[in-house]
């Protein structure tokens, strides 16, 4: 039994399914953020956590985990300035990955256009943070010329290729894994009965989480490399 292409129905077959799925994921995340913020604003004492699970408690757990994770991975003094970017990146990729586990839906991250777009955004952020930390001239000297200036004719082409390959590698890795995961999930859930697909959904959930973490960790490592020369 094949899944119904719900995203194509929503877009009227005129808007690509990846765009419709991306809009839905962004809308859900925006609504979650606004509701969690309102819940925190209405708290009698923002310092005291809720005794039960709520939007506020879930948001606080996510922010606290993200803050510690970015700090431990980057090991930088200014890690907290990077938390909003990497937190947003992680939450979007995670939600987009899990979106594909809904019957009839396709993960937006299973489309190369979106994943390469995310890689390009990380590339621009990496360049911006490197220039901000080192200065434009020093950033070019460290990341393109290298420590031995008289080998610039050899190092510049290599470093340019290395920098340009980073967003491509981020995009292709996420796209390939999510496309393969969603394809395998569709095949086996269509061939098996009710109980067996649950195992594939569990494995798919693990893949969704791991791929979001891997993408974020690689993006953080690039930013850390671009700013480490200034310390």
Walk me through this protein's architecture.
- The chain is mainly α.
- The protein has one domain (6-228).
- It is built from 8 helices and no strands.
- The protein has helices at residues 6-10, 17-41, 55-74, 79-99, 112-134, 136-145, 152-191, 196-228.
- The chain is globular, with a radius of gyration of 21 Å.
Tell the overall outline: globular
Q: Mean pLDDT, as a whole number?
A: 82
Span between termini: 58 Å
Q: How does the helix and strand content classify structurally? A: mainly alpha
List the topology elements.
Blueprint: H1 6-10, H2 17-41, H3 55-74, H4 79-99, H5 112-134, H6 136-145, H7 152-191, H8 196-228
Helix pairs in contact: 2-3, 2-4, 3-4, 4-8, 5-6, 5-7, 5-8, 7-8
């Amino acid at each position: 039994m094949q899944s119904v292409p719900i995203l194509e129905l929503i877009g009227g077959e005129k808007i690509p399914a990846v765009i419709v799925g991306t809009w839905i994921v962004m809308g859900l995340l925006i609504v979650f953020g606004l509701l969690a913020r309102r819940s925190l604003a209405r708290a009698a004492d923002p310092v005291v956590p809720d005794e039960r699970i709520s939007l506020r408690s879930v948001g606080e757990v996510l922010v606290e985990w993200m803050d510690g994770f970015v700090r431990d991975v980057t090991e930088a003094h200014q890690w907290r300035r990077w938390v909003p970017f990497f937190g947003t990146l992680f939450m979007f990729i995670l939600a987009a990955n899990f979106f594909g586990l809904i019957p009839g839906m396709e993960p937006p991250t299973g489309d190369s256009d979106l994943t390469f777009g995310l890689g390009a955004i990380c590339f621009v952020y990496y360049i911006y943070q490197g220039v901000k930390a080192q200065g434009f001239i020093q950033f070019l000297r460290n990341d393109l010329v290298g420590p031995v200036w008289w080998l610039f004719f050899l190092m510049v082409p290599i470093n340019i290729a290395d920098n340009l390959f980073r967003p491509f590698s981020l995009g292709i890795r996420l796209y390939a894994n999510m496309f393969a995961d969603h394809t395998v999930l569709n095949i086996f859930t269509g061939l098996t009965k009710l109980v067996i697909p649950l195992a594939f959904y569990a494995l798919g959930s693990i893949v969704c989480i791991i791929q979001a973490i891997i993408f974020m960790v690689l993006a953080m490592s690039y930013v850390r490399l671009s700013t480490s020369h200034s310390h």
